[in-house]
Amino acid sequence: MNERPLTIAEYRRIAQRRLPKFVFDYVDGAAGDETTMRLNRAAFTQLRLYPRQQVDVSKRSMETTVLGRRVSMPLLLAPTGLQRLVHRRADLEVAQAAGEAEIPFVVSASTAYTVEEIADAGSGDLWLQVYPWRDRKALEHVITRAIAAGYSTLVVTVDVPLLGRRSKPMRPTAFPTCFS
What is the pLDDT of residues 75-112, one digit of tens each? Predict the structure, then answer.
């Protein structure tokens, strides 16, 4: 019997076995030669937790506020585009899980679902990622629908003036035969 994965590396190995190669390469990869990704991973390994001894831990809480809203822990689920490549209901299930965990879910501007479908699936605080599109009418339309669906916050993203060139998925061997 297989045990439940406990580490990110174990989840990564499972994903590599189960996902089509081009999907795994997209999810696992980054733009260019992946230097920034490697530097981020290296920086993360430098973080340390320093436990304190002889502290009363009988009443623990990670609860805090983010932008004046109560959250159960100092965490937001960041916008992750194209989740449906990995799992057909990913965006919906992430919305549901975030609601259950009482943390905000920042819905990606490149989700495969409507803002209404995600709002119906979740019960928590939904934030919407938007890019300052040139088509202001389309942007206003999406924002109006998100407000009507109960989204509380807009996350204006300006980090992608051009899409980064992702080398792994561009390799011919990375695409399934249906793209040949």
Answer: 999 998 889 999 999 999 999 999 999 999 999 999 99
For 16, the enclosing helix (H) or strand (E) is: helix 8-18
Cβ within 8 Å of residue 52, ≥6 positions away? none
C-alpha to C-alpha distance for 103 and 114, rounded to whole angstroms:
20
Q: Which two tokens stand for residue 87?
A: 């799992």
Gyration radius (Cα) of the chain, Å? 19
127, β-bridge pairs: 106, 153
**3-class SS at 161?**
coil
C-alpha span between 169 and 176 (Å, rounded): 10
Per residue in 43-80, pLDDT (tens digit) is 999 999 998 889 898 999 999 999 998 999 999 999 98
Sign, CA dihedral 101-25-79-87, equals negative
Please tell me the pTM assigned to this model: 0.78
- Among residues 117, 112, 120, 124, the alpha carbon closest in space to that of 153 is found at 124
Contact 32, 171 (CB under 8 A): no
